[in-house]
Amino acid sequence: MFGRILKRLGHRPWFAAAARRVVRLDRWLQHRSKGRIVPINAAGVNTLLLTTTGRRSGQPRSQPLLFVRDGDDFIVIGSNWGQAHHPAWTSNLLADPRCAITWKKQELQATAALVRDDERARLLDVLIASWPAYSTYQERAAGREIRIFRLRGI
Fold first, then answer.
1. How far apart are CA 17 and CA 24, in angstroms?
2. Class level of CATH domain 2-153
3. What is the dihedral of CA 56, 88, 109, 57, to 10 degrees?
4. Could you give the CA distance from residue 149 to residue 5 in angstroms, rounded to a whole number?
5. Considering the entire predicted model, what is its pTM?
6. Residue range 27-49: average pLDDT?
7. Which ranges in the chain belong to alpha helices (H)?
8. Is there a contact between 2 and 16 (Cβ–Cβ < 8 Å)?
């Protein structure tokens, strides 16, 4: 029930602004608890904590993200709540595709690949089925093609 309400509210501009603040808290709690406490999961969506290497700083950067599974792979989307610019973590993955995933209290090493063409269209449909507001975020993104990544464990 709560998840359905949030999925409906996800299309609202004020929701994206508020959710960006909640994500900071979620990131902190997931990091401190090593994945044991994941507040966003209360919304009925699947989340992971993605850790990339900062392309300029070289430091680890973590971001909680919604995901869907495609076989054994994790699929994530750089919607950035429909903002006009790409989220930093997507540029980090383009610079260095090695990453870590914290999911279900486990840390997995993975590599990322940008998804393109027909596969992108198929996975975008799957992502929208999981979080319908992704379609609204694409409209708001001012012509920016939202990046989708396949994360594959190594």
1. 12
2. mainly beta
3. 20
4. 27
5. 0.81
6. 68
7. 2-9, 13-33, 88-95, 117-130, 133-140
8. no
